[in-house]
Write a structure and sequence with these properties.
The protein is of the alpha/beta class and 236 residues long. It has two domains: 150 residues, 3-Layer(aba) Sandwich (Rossmann fold), CATH 3.40.50; 79 residues. Strands 5-4-1-6-7-8 form a six-stranded parallel sheet, with helices on both faces. α1 packs antiparallel against α5 and α5 crosses α7. It starts with 5 loop residues before the first strand and ends with a helix. 33% of the residues are buried.
Length: 236
């Protein structure tokens, strides 16, 4: 098996445990604290649950990402803000309310380990928030320093497993190592369709982190681990 020259990680449920996802709490926050005071709550929630939900639901079919900043701007144009709140502040608050996360216990350990080996590390994650917001999220855990670069689907309007999103990270990696081959890039993720099969279809070496020990999903025989620390036995 080809040894890695670069390792790329997914974020949610790979490096960060996504404990809870709650989109409704974001909508309630916007209605109660941000949007004009005279906006009917049920009319607003109904609008969000129809027009925008349809866009979100179609993402897994066409792998086109919906960026939340566009949704927020639409809400602002349609309903108005009660004050001129900075968009960056609102977006961060929405991101924090939407996802409750925590570090997996071996996340820092494996990132430090790769750093000691001198293996460059990148991040490529599906997320409806763009890089500037996501940087603030991951830096709550002091993670950005471990990565050569970080990429999020909202910045490119594409979602994994779309090949063009893997092409983005590949071209970024080749800026520092023009001779690198696809198979020398290991991609580690928890989503079998988006991360594992998506990476494999692009020619990367995928590693499926299967913490739930699902014995039936990996029907292609890809490399499989149950914890990030298991990477030590694969990389050395």
């Amino acid at each position: 098996m080809t040894k890695p020259k670069v390792v790329v990680f997914d974020l949610y449920d790979t490096l960060l445990h996504d404990i809870k996802f709650d989109f409704n709490s974001v909508l309630l926050y916007l209605h109660e604290e941000i949007l004009s005071k005279d906006i009917d709550k049920f009319e607003f929630l109904n609008y969000a649950a129809t027009y925008w939900k349809e866009l979100y639901d179609s993402r897994d079919k066409d792998n086109i990402e919906v960026a939340f900043d566009e949704e927020l701007l639409d809400f602002k144009n349609k309903y108005g803000f009660r004050e001129e709140f900075p968009m960056e502040e609102i977006l961060l608050n929405c991101a924090l309310k939407m996802n409750s996360v925590e570090l997996f216990e071996d996340t820092i350990f494996i990132l430090e380990y790769l750093n000691k080996l001198g293996i460059p590390v990148y991040l490529l994650s599906n997320a409806i928030f763009k890089k500037e917001v996501m940087k603030k999220i991951i830096n709550r855990y002091d993670l950005e320093k471990y990565f050569e670069n970080i990429h999020f689907s909202a910045d490119y309007k594409l979602r994994k497993p779309h090949k063009d999103l893997f092409k983005v990270i590949f071209e970024d990696i080749k800026k520092d190592n023009d001779s690198i081959e696809n198979s020398q890039i290991y991609f580690i993720g928890d989503n079998f369709e988006a991360d594992v099969k998506g990476a494999a279809n692009f020619g990367f070496t995928p590693i499926f982190i299967n913490r739930s020990n699902n014995k039936y999903i990996n029907d292609k025989g890809f490399i499989e681990i149950e914890a990030l620390s298991d990477l030590m036995q694969i990389i050395i």
